[in-house]
């Protein structure tokens, strides 16, 4: 609590800009960070932010764990994997509080199958997924729902950015991937595509985490970053077109793709009540998955979360009003 | 004999001791860089579960398949460009331009054209090994002493016999050194190809272990890949020495 108190007292007063490097995913999930950077909200709060863009959050997380970046936006699944191997990833907040059909199973339309069960029953499918990311867990849940065991399908590891090409070339029957790659593949396949999603079963949570070192040595930087993201929330809500343009420039995504998927997100910082239950479901799967005979040592989900900073940020916002 | 066995063993022991020392000193987090003992245990787990064998077989099939296809093409084209000036001046500029590309740079294009199936992996490996073999065959074929060819001519040897009995044997030291270089390239390419779009192979195992933060498994698979590469290189060199005894020094 001492460092929180210290952080609050320093959050608005420091005159020297503090450096903070943030690793993010090339996706709308990173909108608040990109807007805060582009609009100068980080600078106004006294932060000198350097943003590093990766094709997936799990790659940003690897940079985080190697010490190349001090903060990261990554999905809840790779963070859990890292924590399960004894690596520390203190989660401060989510940067997207709701998303709709963001992770999907996308395949070529098959005239003989209208449901997920039929799709997998017709023949042995080759499915590409982003191993070590949320789409891998999503694939597991969707297969379970279809009554298909993982040995009944061929699962191949694929980088998210390569999935549209793999699907279009016919090398794989389907992919499980997040946006924007799902939409890119869908647009390229056109009427040939079929998409399955289970919003009630799984939603990827995009989490903002910082290193223990930053929490201990400059906790005020965390509060400043959250306050800047709160400023970005207002901008995104009031001027979505400009926010999309910022995202388009930073990620090189086409405006068409962004327009199509934009409404699927709610760009707010927060912490969803279902995050711990998602982690618990993932833990029970990981305990049985046992890919290389290396047992997964489940962390306590509560120990990953550091919600005090978010609480104090909301308090500061209320006081400011 | 003692020197031949003890010195290499000693160098490995020094490496392992240095590695353990770094881990024990606490300079590196054990979760990030595992110690040799936990890597050994991970290797044992992989072997006992049968994954090591499955992955090694899958990688070797790709490596030798690609090596065979790329080598065959490289030798044929190298002989043509090395012995026939017109063919050489027509093909060489294009090949010289293409060989400047790092082999891994063609992978995105290969995925776009061929997808991610076995054919794409074999093509990627074959195209990477083609260039060192083509170049060494080309050099070997173009440096054949003219007396060799004159002797063949004086014996009224046919073109085919000249190729089989004069040109290829004379170019063989170059071809074989190109093959050994290409062997290493094939291992690199197999690893890169398996990191994405695969469900087996040592490259795949290294990649998924890294993504699952199973660093001990990742390093164990790296050790297996390195050992396989070393064994493969020694096997190639020994078999060449055995088959082409007169070329012992060149090999």
Structural account:
The complex is a heterodimer of chains A (321) and B (251). In chain A, helix 2 packs across helix 11, helix 2 packs across helix 12 and helix 11 (219-238) packs across helix 16 (308-320). A five-stranded mixed beta sheet of chain A has the order 2-1-3-11-4. In chain A, strands 8-7-9-6-10 form a five-stranded mixed beta sheet, sandwiched between helices. Chain A starts with a helix and ends with a helix. Helix content of chain A is 47%, strand content 18%. Chain A is α/β, with parallel strands linked by helices. The longest helix of chain A is centred in the last third of the chain and has 20 residues, at 219-238. In chain A, helix 7 links the parallel strand 7 (126-129) and strand 8. Chain A is globular and about 60 Å long. Chain B is mainly α and 251 residues long. Chain B has helices at residues 2-24, 36-49, 51-83, 85-98, 107-114, 118-142, 146-154, 159-195, 202-211, 215-243. The longest helix of chain B has 37 residues, at 159-195. The relative contact order of chain B is 0.13. The mean pLDDT of chain B is 88.
Order of helices and strands of chain A: HEHHEHEHEEEHEHEHEHEEHHHHEHHH
Across the major sheet of chain A, the strand order is 2-1-3-11-4
Rg of chain A, Å, rounded: 20 Å
Distance between the termini of chain B: 21 Å
Descriptive key words:
heterodimer; A: 321 residues; alpha/beta; 5-stranded mixed β-sheet; 12 strands; 47% helix; 18% strand; B: 251 residues; mainly alpha; 10 helices; 80% helix; globular
């Amino acid at each position: 609590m001492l460092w929180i108190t210290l952080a609050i007292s320093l959050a608005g007063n420091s005159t020297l800009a503090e450096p903070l490097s943030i690793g993010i995913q090339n996706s709308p999930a990173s909108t608040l960070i990109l807007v805060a950077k582009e609009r100068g909200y980080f600078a106004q709060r006294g932060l000198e932010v350097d943003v590093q863009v990766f094709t997936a959050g799990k790659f940003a997380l690897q940079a985080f764990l190697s010490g190349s970046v001090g903060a990261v936006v990554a999905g809840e699944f790779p963070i859990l994997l890292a924590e399960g191997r004894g690596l520390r990833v203190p989660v401060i907040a989510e940067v997207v509080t709701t998303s709709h059909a963001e992770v999907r199973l996308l395949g070529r339309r098959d005239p003989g199958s209208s449901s997920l069960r039929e799709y997998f029953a017709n023949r042995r499918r080759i499915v590409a997924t982003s191993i070590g990311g949320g789409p891998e867990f999503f694939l597991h849940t969707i297969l379970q729902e279809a009554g298909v065991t993982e040995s009944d399908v061929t699962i191949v590891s694929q980088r998210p950015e390569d999935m549209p090409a793999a699907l279009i070339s016919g090398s794989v029957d389907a992919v499980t991937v997040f946006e924007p790659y799902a939409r890119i593949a869908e647009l390229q396949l056109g009427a040939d595509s079929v998409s399955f999603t289970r919003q009630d079963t799984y939603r990827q949570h995009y989490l903002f985490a910082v290193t223990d070192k930053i929490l201990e040595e400059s906790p005020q930087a965390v509060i400043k970053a959250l306050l800047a993201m709160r400023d970005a929330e207002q901008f995104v809500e009031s001027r979505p077109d400009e926010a999309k343009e910022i995202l388009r420039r930073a990620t090189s995504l086409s405006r068409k793709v962004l327009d199509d998927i934009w409404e699927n997100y709610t760009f707010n910082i927060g912490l969803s009540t279902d995050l711990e239950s998602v982690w618990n479901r993932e833990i029970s799967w990981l305990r049985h998955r046992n890919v290389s005979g290396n047992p997964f040592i489940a962390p306590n989900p509560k120990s990953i979360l550091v919600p005090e900073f978010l609480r104090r940020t909301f308090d500061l916002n209320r006081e400011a009003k | 004999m003692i020197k031949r066995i003890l010195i290499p063993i000693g160098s490995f022991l020094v490496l392992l001791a240095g590695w353990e020392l770094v881990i024990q000193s606490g300079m590196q987090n054990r979760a990030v860089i595992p110690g040799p003992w936990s890597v050994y245990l991970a290797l044992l787990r992989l072997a006992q579960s049968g994954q090591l064998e499955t992955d090694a077989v899958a990688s070797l099939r790709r490596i030798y398949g690609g090596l065979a296809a790329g080598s065959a093409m490289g030798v044929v084209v190298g002989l043509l460009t090395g012995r026939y000036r017109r063919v050489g001046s027509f093909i060489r500029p294009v090949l010289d331009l293409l060989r400047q590309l790092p082999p891994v740079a063609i992978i995105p294009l290969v995925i776009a054209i061929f997808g991610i199936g076995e054919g794409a992996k074999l093509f990627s490996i074959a195209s990477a090994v083609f260039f060192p073999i083509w170049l060494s065959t080309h050099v070997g074929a173009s440096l054949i002493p003219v007396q060799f060819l004159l002797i063949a001519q004086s014996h009224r040897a046919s073109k085919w016999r000249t190729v089989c009995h004069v040109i290829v044997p004379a170019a063989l030291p170059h071809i074989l050194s190109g093959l050994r270089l290409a062997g290493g390239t094939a291992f690199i390419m197999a690893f890169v190809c398996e990191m994405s779009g695969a469900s087996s192979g040592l490259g795949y195992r290294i990649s998924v272990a890294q993504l699952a933060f199973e660093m001990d498994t990742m390093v164990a698979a790296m050790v297996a890949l390195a050992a396989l590469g070393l064994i493969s290189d020694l096997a190639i060199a020994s078999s060449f020495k055995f088959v082409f005894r007169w070329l012992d020094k060149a090999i």
